[in-house]
User: Fold this.
Amino acid sequence: MKQRLSRIWWALTALVLFAPGWALAAAKGGGGNVVIVADTRKLDGIMAWWANMYNESHLEFTILTIIIIPVTGLIFGILADAVMSHIGIDLKTRKTSEG
Assistant:
């Protein structure tokens, strides 16, 4: 029984390792180049600008995304803190309800 499970295990491992090669071989002439672009036909304004930036330079798109995400989080955090302090939730002091 243990030998049979070992054979099944090795067969599955071989399948996982060789499956990508078989898929490329089935593509008749090797794998073709894949071009990833954003569809900008129905976009306008900032969404069109953002999609065009993605199409033109993945490096600039990545850098701008890395900058925008933390800045957006900081702005939302400040706004949430202001709203919570306005409705009476004080996050600046630590008071426990047990004391």
Q: What stands out?
A: The mean pLDDT is 85.
